[in-house]
Amino acid sequence: MMLLTILSLVFMTNDTINHNQNNQNNNNMKFELIKLPYATDALAPVISQKTIEFHYGKHLQTYVNNLNNLIQGTQFENAALETIVTESEGGLFNNAGQVLNHNLYFTQFSPNGGGQPTGKLATAINEVFGSFDNFQKEFETAGVGLFGSGWVWLAADHAGKLSIVKEPNAGNPVTKGLTPLLGFDVWEHSYYLDYQNRRADHLKELWKIVDWNVVGGRLK
Ligand code: MN
After folding, report:
1. Cα(4) to centroid of ligand 1, in Å?
2. pLDDT tens digits for 8-41?
3. The CATH number of domain 119-217, selected from 3.30.1360.60, 3.10.20.30, 3.55.40.20, 3.10.20.310
């Protein structure tokens, strides 16, 4: 009986602690750093462990922290990430956009990636770009030609028609009513430790780790 009482006390205490932590998470930590679907050294040498540690561990974490701070007390406090990106502006848009962008970016790679898309995505790419090779060329050209910091996206409209979209800074095609499928980050923080000024070389290497199953799965 004594033991039961002690056990219930222990469980009650745990419940109380968990409950408080959950409340705290809901209030102060709405958005969390995504989990990487691979080890931090798994994408090397295309993306080094050091770059992942800074890009994911520092840059993305900062965007997440800023976003959580900036939504407090605003109409976006309980909004979905895509809603915030679509409807906000200024610093809130920049940080929300970068969280969405990097969530898509880091989950589209795999150490077993590369090759070519199949199925519906392959058909859609051929329809617009003629061939996968030509799509890659146009995508790289768009990324290299983007002045300053930003993103190059493969996006789909409501009918599933694809296009390459260049976005400055934190931009994402959702603000144009499009669905982002694949995004290459051309901010210098994404490649400078490994490639220094050679953005074109970096973009060319990225094809080796693209997980086309993930990218194709984003095409509804
Ligand atoms: Mn980045």
Report:
1. 53
2. 444 434 433 333 333 344 455 799 999 999 999 9
3. 3.55.40.20
